[in-house]
Design brief:
- The chain is mainly α.
- Among the domains are: 87-196; 216-290, no CATH class.
- The chain has 16 helices and no strands.
- It has helices at 2-5, 12-23, 28-35, 40-48, 53-56, 65-86, 91-115, 120-126, 147-153, 161-173, 183-186, 192-214, 217-242, 251-261, 273-278, 282-289.
- α7 runs antiparallel to α12 (192-214) and α10 (161-173) crosses α12 (192-214).
- The chain is globular, with a radius of gyration of 22 Å.
- 20% of the residues are buried.
- The mean pLDDT is 84.
């Protein structure tokens, strides 16, 4: 009987919040209304009949698509932030790790934007709300510093600093000069997409490790399957994007390059690893995942 006194002390309110958020998901009739909208005014009106009303009702008609996208993502980010504020371990850490994926994308996007001379305030405005974090403004230091200095003075202290640390360790392994000051010249060979793929690979591995060691029961089983699926999707996307790369026509070079980026996690690994790394056209890629 005493156990009932403490039932759901930690998770009771959080569970209620999650159930409330689940109720706000768009239903089939909502999607039908959106699908039948003939213009942005109708689209916004259809959304105002849902839980998105509060964030849209003060917006003018017709609402610009980028503004609409930002508002909808901001609502999701606010909901996740509120949920995390009510959560205890391990849910709090789980949400933190989940948001790290978006933080990585924001960080890489801002650094590359700075290199391309895009206005910093514009970059912040375009960043994904799910990946916002205190300290984003410190990335502005990338304007006048090389990558090694940016890492030592800025990136190391970010919430996603550990992923950059592992990333830089990995790229120095095969470098002739393993001094951290050589990073700036090494990074010239890494595009925004390549950098993001390697960082997301490290993040996904950390997320998988957390879910399989800290979670239990259905939570662990569901997340294990979801993360393996996500890993397989990322692997297939990386290989598909490399099919038209003229620099990867050599079979040996193609395999070496892909092995650096594709995941060692998922249902395709290790059984289909060889077929995937050797695929040099779309048909072979299809056969590898069939």
């Amino acid at each position: 009987m005493s156990e009932l006194l403490f039932f759901n002390v930690d998770e009771g309110y959080t569970e209620a919040v999650v159930r409330g958020l689940k109720k706000s998901f768009l239903e089939e009739e909502d999607y039908n209304a959106l699908k039948n909208a003939t213009n942005l005014v109708d689209f916004k009106t259809a959304l105002e009949a849902t839980d998105y009303e509060e964030v849209l009702q003060q917006e003018p008609n017709p609402i610009p698509v980028p503004r609409l996208q930002t508002l909808l993502k901001q609502k999701l980010a606010d909901d996740m932030q509120y949920l995390q504020a009510q959560a205890s371990s391990p849910l709090y850490e789980f949400i933190d790790l989940m948001r790290h994926g978006y933080m990585i994308e924001n960080t890489v996007y801002i650094i590359e934007g700075i290199k391309s001379k895009v206005d910093f305030e514009v970059l912040l405005k375009r960043a994904d709300p799910l990946g916002e974090f205190p300290g984003m403004r410190t990335i502005k230091a990338a304007e006048s510093e090389n990558y090694a200095n940016v890492y030592q003075t800025v990136l190391i202290d970010l919430p996603v600093g550990k992923y950059f640390h592992k990333f830089l360790e990995d790229i120095l392994v095969g470098a002739a000069n393993k001094d951290i000051n050589a990073i700036d010249s090494i990074m010239k060979d890494y595009t925004q997409e390549k950098t993001k793929n390697l960082l997301k690979k490290i993040w996904l591995t950390e997320m998988y490790k957390f879910c399989t060691t800290e979670l239990s029961g259905p939570s662990r089983e569901i997340m294990e399957d979801l993360l393996k699926f996500e890993s397989d999707c990322m692997t297939m996307q990386i290989i598909y994007n490399s099919l038209g790369n003229k620099d990867l026509t050599d079979a040996k070079g193609r395999e070496a390059e892909r092995k650096q980026y594709i995941h060692r996690l998922g249902k395709l690994y290790p059984g289909r690893d060889r077929e995937l790394t050797q695929a040099d056209n779309l048909e072979k890629l299809k056969l590898a995942v069939a």
